[in-house]
């Protein structure tokens, strides 16, 4: 397995292009199952998760052609050969569950392996299943798979209120409802920009949807959808991650394609901490104002709240802040695994259940650390860039799931970082 070696190197300077959103692309790709006509995605990110979703769709007979070094995905589901999403692919990536709704809506049946949990939590899919059942789906859970069938007349529109906000369950229900008979109203729906992006793509395909970005989404089912070409929205989590680089190391960098509206709550916290963020014609310029970063408290929440996917990275910043901060993780039950690794670098962090109290120190020290999940891995890299000495991050395969060309992008703004094969 590869390792990343990073050395503290002072202020950063330069620009980083931000890619298309992993978490938008992973729901836009299964949308191809809703039509027998071509769906083409542009601005697609080059990530291992996208390659896994590609393999899953291909295993069902979807033609997926990757063009322009992976930035364009040309897909066609005109000749599906299977309704089954096998465990050996699903276990690699939970987002595989997102083929369930569209496959059921288009073909009337689907067999999808239940995704296991993952490092950050149990991550059940009960809300996905309840929403589909409300539309008339008959579900049979056995031998680790969900066997789903739609009524012979197809899924029917329904009114469904989510007991808690779920991004994936909203996406599954939304896609299924586009082909259901009649009207579906999803209440307490997720409001993430990735949901808005999915709706914009579905609308291009002929779907009739209103209310995206609010808590209530209304879908008028149609008989069929047609093909489309859709640009994947900018990745707000990659954007927020790289905004923290100058915040921790000093200097100023420009994030090409960055948009403040995608990360308003996060930007407010950065501003409180003493980081300057300025919109430019090409994106966002981010710099640390004079003096140390100030400690600020954060609680993660569904959009438009502070994103859970930026909690680990923000904790790395708070490790260097003046004062103490409390980070509360309200979405997942085990998302502080980066804390003990940061502690190895001299950070002062006390974790009590869903809260982490961070007392800032003046300097972190490089150390060998281990990545435990996608966002923790990049949190450790950020800490290593600001630390004194060398940090070696192992198990960086986590990184490849969500960050394309991370070494190239950070080296481009002056970081001393390289990727090596583990001895
Ligand atoms: C999406 O996961 C993202 N993944 C996650 O990003 C992100 O952290 C999460 O949304 C929250 O924003 C993709 O979009 C591929 P949820 P998802 O359903 O849809 C519970 C990353 O780092 N829940 O909104 O799985 C669940 O356990 C990843 O890019 C149920 O109880 O998240 C969690 O506690 C990590 N039953 C909470 O809801 C269900 O049926 C929110 O989960 C579904 C979810």
From TrEMBL:
Gene3D superfamilies in alphabetical order: Enolpyruvate transferase domain
Ranges where the Enolpyruvate transferase domain occurs: 7-410
Top-tier EC class: transferase
2-(S-cysteinyl)pyruvic acid O-phosphothioketal: residues bearing it: 118
Binding of UDP-N-acetyl-alpha-D-glucosamine, residues: 94, 123-127, 309, 331
Pathway: Cell wall biogenesis; peptidoglycan biosynthesis
Cellular localization per UniProt: Cytoplasm
GO molecular function: UDP-N-acetylglucosamine 1-carboxyvinyltransferase activity
Catalytic site positions: 118
Record keywords, A-Z: Cell cycle, Cell division, Cell shape, Cell wall biogenesis/degradation, Cytoplasm, Peptidoglycan synthesis, Pyruvate, Transferase
Gene Ontology CC: cytoplasm
Reaction equations catalysed: phosphoenolpyruvate + UDP-N-acetyl-alpha-D-glucosamine = UDP-N-acetyl-3-O-(1-carboxyvinyl)-alpha-D-glucosamine + phosphate
Family: Belongs to the EPSP synthase family. MurA subfamily.
Described purpose of this protein according to its UniProt entry: Cell wall formation. Adds enolpyruvyl to UDP-N-acetylglucosamine.
HAMAP family: MurA
NCBIfam families in the cross-refs: murA, PRK09369.1
Full protein name: UDP-N-acetylglucosamine 1-carboxyvinyltransferase
């Amino acid at each position: 397995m590869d390792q990343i070696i990073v050395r503290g190197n002072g202020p950063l300077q330069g620009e980083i292009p931000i890619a298309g959103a992993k978490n938008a692309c992973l729901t836009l790709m299964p949308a191809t199952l809703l039509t027998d006509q071509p769906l083409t995605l542009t601005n697609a990110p080059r990530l291992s998760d996208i390659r896994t979703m590609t393999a899953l769709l291909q295993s069902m007979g979807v033609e997926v052609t990757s063009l322009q070094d992976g930035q364009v995905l040309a897909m066609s589901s005109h000749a599906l050969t299977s309704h089954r999403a096998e465990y050996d692919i699903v276990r690699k990536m939970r987002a595989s569950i997102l083929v369930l709704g569209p496959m059921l809506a288009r073909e009337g049946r689907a067999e999808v392996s239940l995704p296991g949990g993952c490092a950050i939590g149990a991550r059940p899919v009960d809300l996905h299943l309840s929403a589909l059942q409300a539309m008339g789906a008959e579900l049979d859970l056995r031998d680790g798979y969900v066997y789903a069938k739609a009524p012979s007349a197809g899924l029917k529109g329904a009114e469904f209120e989510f007991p808690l906000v779920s991004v994936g369950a909203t996406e599954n229900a939304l896609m299924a409802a586009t082909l259901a008979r009649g009207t579906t109203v999803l209440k307490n729906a997720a409001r993430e920009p990735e949901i808005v992006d999915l709706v914009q793509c579905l609308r291009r395909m002929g779907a009739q949807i209103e209310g995206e970005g609010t808590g209530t989404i209304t879908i008028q089912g149609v008989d069929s959808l047609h093909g489309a070409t859709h640009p994947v929205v900018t990745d707000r989590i990659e954007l927020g991650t790289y905004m923290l680089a100058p915040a921790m190391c000093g200097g100023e960098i420009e994030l090409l394609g960055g948009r403040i509206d995608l990360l308003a709550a996060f930007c407010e916290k950065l501003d409180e901490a003493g980081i300057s963020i300025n919109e430019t014609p090409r994106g966002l310029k981010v710099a640390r104002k004079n003096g140390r970063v100030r400690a600020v408290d954060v609680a993660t929440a569904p959009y438009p709240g502070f994103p859970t996917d930026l909690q680990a990275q923000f904790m790395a910043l708070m490790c260097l802040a003046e004062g103490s901060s409390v980070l509360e993780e309200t979405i997942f039950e085990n998302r502080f695994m980066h804390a003990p690794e940061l502690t190895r670098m001299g950070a002062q962090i006390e974790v009590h259940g869903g809260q982490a109290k961070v007392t800032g120190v003046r300097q972190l020290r490089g150390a060998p650390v281990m990545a435990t999940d996608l966002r923790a891995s990049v949190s450790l890299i950020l800490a290593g860039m600001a630390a004194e000495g060398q940090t070696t991050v192992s198990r960086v395969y986590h990184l490849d799931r969500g960050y394309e060309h991370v070494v190239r992008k950070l080296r481009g703004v002056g970081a001393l970082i390289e990727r090596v094969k583990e001895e």
